[in-house]
Design a protein that fits this description.
It is built from 17 helices and no strands. By secondary structure, the protein is an all-alpha fold. The model has no long low-confidence stretch (mean pLDDT 89). This is Purine-cytosine permease.
Amino acid sequence: MSANVGVATLAFGTLGPALFELGWWDSFLCILFFNIIGSMPPALMATFGPKLGLRTMVMPRYSFGWYPAKGIAIINLLNQIGWAMVNAIAGAQFLYDVGNGNLPMSVAVLIVGLLAMVIGMFGYKHVHRFERVSWLVVLVCLIIVTGFGAKHMVNVPMGKGPAETSSILSFGTTIIGFQISWAPIAADYGVFMRETYKPRSVFLWSFCGLFISQFFVELLGVGLMTAVNGSDAFQNAYDAAGVGGLTGEVFKGHGAGVAGFGKFIQVILGFSVLGVVIVNLYSLGLNVQAIGLGLLDVPRLVWSLLGGAIFLAAAVAGRNHLSSVMENFLNVVAYWLTPFLTIIFLEHIIWRRGFAYDVSAWQNPKKLPHGFAAAFCFITWWVGPIALAVGNPPFGTDISWELALGATTLLYVPLRWLERKKFGL
């Protein structure tokens, strides 16, 4: 919950009206139902941490096998770098608005990124200590923003026809991508919990943390974005500093004292992204170590610092394009994570019920599956007329995660059965 109570989630909520041209109620329903669906996979993945004591990127070895699992770890490494970039830019927009444009976006990104690297390098216990308290402070600030901003929000009506259907499904894909992005690192933060904890309890607490935080903060993002309708001031603020500009605008018109207080709130909100960026950087280091045994000899701290340097360079380069970066990145996330998670959970439900994993085999290729079935399903891409038929030509609708879920399920079960029958692993 702590990592999601911040302005990156707030910025994501603005995509409904800003990019997909949805109104209030259709954005509300998308955020409600697709977040319910999207919260389930990472909550389920979180149950693996206490039961097995294995980091998340070790789990693919029990379905993908030794070598294909390395490829998954590399993809997720890029995933964490991309998320750190998106989150840092979101926070930097608030600092940029506070500085009235005098603080360059590149410097704002560096400030946020470097602070996150300093906190994240200290490791597991310090990350948890920070997360325990940071969300409370940020939540108070978001409530204050809601209070000042409510009167500016507009009930934008819903659309109709094929265009509306296309927008809802496409926004739904980005919501799914935003939520399930937690799945490939979810088990990392439960490995020191007692093995006796009931998986149902871990699932429910994780689900509530993911859903509650993203649902309410994303709705606030939608509300702030609706203020752009009919208000040149909010439109100009958004054009100048993104969601940071929208937040700053709600404090104007109440006198110098309130404006100054608003700047203070914005600074806190700008640094709220530390709660998520330090998680990205910590898990990034673990991902590198999952790529090969030789990389385990290098301390996680070194890999986190190197990854931090790369993400800072990328964030500075993309600092002025948060909305487009977020939309494109989230779609790519949904593309690879849906088949990946489908394979992991099918393996778990059908062949490894009751957490029947040989945890001593995690770094022994001879005791792990060959991964032929998983690798084949994962690299299978289907581009056909269905997406085009759902929405308006020539772009159609992004229904990638639905197709990936169905196709992977149909392929993996029989192929994995044949693989186990032949090789016994």
